[in-house]
Amino acid sequence: CFGFPLSIFFIVINEFCERFSYYGMRAVLTLYFKYFLNWDDNFSTVIYHTFVALCYLTPILGAIIADSWLGKFKTILSLSIVYAIGQTVLSVGSISELSDHNKDGSPDNISLHIALSMIGLILIALGTGGIKPCVSAFGGDQFEDDQEEARSTFFSLFYLSINAGSLISTLVTPNIRATQCGIHTKQECYPLAFGIPAILMAVSLIVFVSGSKMYKKVKPQGNIMLQVCKCIGFAIKNRFRHRSKKFPKREHWLDWASEKYDKRLINQIKMVLKVLFLYIPLPMFWALFDQQGSRWTLQATVMNGDFGIQVQPDQMQIVNPILIVIMVPVVDYLVYPLIKKCKINFTPLRKMTVGMFLASMAFVAAALVQVQIDKTYPVFPAAGQTQIRLMNLGDLPATVQFQPQLQRVDVEPKTATDYMIFKTSELQSLSVASGAQNQSFPLANLQGGKRYTFAFKHYIVGIVSNLMLDNVTSKPEKGNNLIRFVNNYGVPVNVSLDYKNFVVLPPLSAGNYSIIPGGDRQYIIKSTALINSCTVLSKKFGFGSAYTISIDDCSRGILNVTYFEDIAPNSVHMAWQIPQYFLLTCGEVVYSVTGLEFSYSQAPSNMKSVLQAGWLLTVAVGNIIVLIVAGASKLSKQWAEYVLFASLLFAVCIIFAIMATFYTYVDPNEVEAQFDEEEKEKDKRNEDHHEKESEADSKM
């Protein structure tokens, strides 16, 4: 079909569905840990990176099973079944109704959901990691030796399907997650967000099995990684046995394996170990790169996602694949040729060094963004402290004096002060002077570590007040907003928001906070007092804010209200994350692509899989570094952690640059050709020797 074996279309569709399944699930994973399983940021990050590390450790196991035991087809089939089961278990584990016996929308037995989620993730890691080294190689097996051009086109299609699956799923799955679903109560739809990837994985499996009769199935031929490990193990063991000084030293420690293994294999392993030695600093790059799905996603949760349409925090990860599609051709066809014209010797190792530097700068950019976000966070009182805000609901200015002689504050009509911090033990009372009135109010029974709003209003007969506890202890999560109403009428009123959440408020009293979704939506505020009903369209509340809305009066059916900002909305826009994504993506283009190209160019043809395993291992170790830092770090500020990671990678970048200067590039083909020549000469000498022996025997 179009010059390709028909079987490869099944493989490409299979890969698209599998990548959609994996990246779709992974996109929402951190927020699932934080908001459904109620884990804190650090623990969510630790478990996320543990999962990713496992996904990059299991490919080694998959390669060994495929090459030494089951073959590629059976390995892909069996591990895909494990994969699909894992996705299904994860989806089931995210159904709150599974243990929500009191029907309040929250799981009653969170341990059950954690257990199911962890079992599902372990099965997914085994599945996705196990098939990772097999699928592309299995696709390559479908071509004949004379189909080099078609095989090359297949690999382009194959990697296109990977990026397409990643791009579409990262766009779609967070939107599904953000929708409301549930049997008893409506909440974020994690079961469907994980269920769609589970369905796609089942489709992937069905498509793969459908092409079974068309596949060219190569039998297992042994795994070179096992052979390499055995050779290295024998060399170490043999060297230890002959550690005495009476045994002559050998040129290289691997030469101690020459008693059992041929010279060609030993020299090939030497070439591989040279490259693997350069891999030692590489995990640090991946430690930063894979935080797109953890720390950077969590950073986006406290930012403004209004792009005209609401962008979910976990959707910002889509910036990376979009920039990859743009930057790869730009770098290959514009940047590299320009550097070449400038006669700069931009070797692969120098490219990788630049990639590390760009990634470290990406985290500097992330730290700068975090500093701006931190400035928008409200400051809450510590133990032994109390915060008080003054709210003047009257039409006259007022002066408030905190006793005993602590602070004097002027408050304009229909305004509120910022929260002021006092030592709880020092506050005794306050006096309010407004118009001709001057009254004192006791501040008894204040609790330490709490926020209060002291609302007051001037009347002819005196000043009426209400000390309200503001029971908000943190900035609203998930971009939601908190809204409450205070009655500034002289009579009780019924207040509703979009004709829901009716609350009856006595004069100068406030209701409880209600959670409303973030965004640019406006709500209808309705107030009914005695026989009058009034409505007004609310302001846009943004993301992560808290407001107290004063119901003031009614004029011709129009409700007059005053907005008091308790907690400012998220003011730092998600677009400010784009520079850090841009720097990281540029780093990935010159680091990751070049790294694989360099590794393959420096390794013998039969050792490519060893270097592939080594490369994947650096990704796993990088994620292990993150979970160690996130678990052990005592840094209280997130920007400081970003700076720490940037500094570590910058230091590693310098070390790698020094290591690269001592590396000598080789051509494995020339080395192997030299061995071929030596073997031919050896065979010729053996033939000549046998001929001479035959002549001598005939003379006798």
Count of beta strands: 19
Oligomer: single chain
**Structural classification:** alpha+beta
CATH T-level topology of the largest domain: Growth Hormone, Chain: A
- Please give the CATH class of the largest domain: Mainly Alpha
Count the domains: 4
End-to-end CA span: 68 Å
Q: DSSP helix count?
A: 17
- Runs with pLDDT <50, length 5+? none
Helix content: 40-55%
Form type: elongated
CATH-defined superfamily of the largest domain = MFS general substrate transporter like domains
Mean pLDDT: 86
The rounded Rg comes to 34 Å
Describe the main β-sheet briefly.
5 strands, mixed
- CATH architectural grouping of the largest domain: Up-down Bundle
Strand content: 15-25%
Keywords: Cell membrane, Glycoprotein, Membrane, Peptide transport, Protein transport, Symport, Transmembrane, Transmembrane helix, Transport
GO biological process, one term: protein transport
Main location: membrane
Protein name: Solute carrier family 15 member 1
Description:
This protein is of the alpha+beta class and 700 residues long. It is 53% helix and 16% strand. The chain has 4 domains: 1-222, Growth Hormone, Chain: A, CATH 1.20.1250.20; 262-373 and 577-693, Growth Hormone, Chain: A (Up-down Bundle); 377-470, Immunoglobulin-like, CATH 2.60.40; 476-569, Immunoglobulin-like. The chain has 17 helices and 19 strands. A hairpin with a 5-residue loop joins strand 1 (180-181) and strand 2. Helix 1 packs antiparallel against helix 5 (110-141) and helix 3 (41-70) crosses helix 5 (110-141). Interacts (via extracellular domain region) with trypsin. Pfam families: PTR2. It is a multi-pass membrane protein.
